[in-house]
Amino acid sequence: MRIYKICTAAEWDAAVRDGAYRGSAVDRRDGFIHFSTAAQVRDTAAKHFAGLSDLVLIGIDDTRLGTELRWEPSRGGALFPHLYAPLPVEVATSVTPLPLGNDGRHRFPDWLDQ
């Protein structure tokens, strides 16, 4: 299954230079990197990234993350993927800009729904 991480372009650029993404300030505080499924990522953007620009959507094949990826209850009891390790940048299957539309909501790529 493909899972997704939303972060700033600057955070991802730093991860590329470093070879691994170590998470946002919220991730580091919580002790794991937060991910969402395709069905969850729009709500994640609206709840945690509302109005923020210069974001990217990182796609990851969850089978490449091993035992450090755990599916745990979060919002409303739904299971969310959490990574308890740095994310090696080479496992990213896509890095897509996540622009804001005129209505202030993020515009996700059409292929996300397929």
Here the CATH topology equals: ADP-ribosylation fold
Into which percent range does the helicity of residues fall? 10-25%
Major sheet attributes: 4 strands, antiparallel
- How many whole angstroms does the radius of gyration measure? 13 Å
Structural class: alpha+beta
Number of strands: 9
CATH first level: which class? Alpha Beta
* H and E order: EHEHEEHEEEEE
How many domain units?
Answer: 1
- The gross shape turns out to be globular
Let me know the CATH homologous superfamily: Protein of unknown function DUF952
Beta fraction: 25-35%
Q: Please tell me the overall pLDDT.
A: 94
CATH architectural label:
Alpha-Beta Barrel
How far apart the termini lie comes to 12 Å
Low-pLDDT segments, ≥5 res: none
Description:
- The protein is built from 3 helices and 9 strands.
- It has helices at residues 9-18, 25-30, 41-48, and strands at 2-8, 20-21, 33-34, 36-37, 55-61, 69-73, 79-83, 87-88, 92-98.
- 23% of the residues are buried.
- It is globular, with a radius of gyration of 13 Å.
- The mean pLDDT is 94.
- A hairpin with a 5-residue loop joins strand 6 and strand 7.
- It has a single domain (2-102), classed as Protein of unknown function DUF952 (ADP-ribosylation fold).
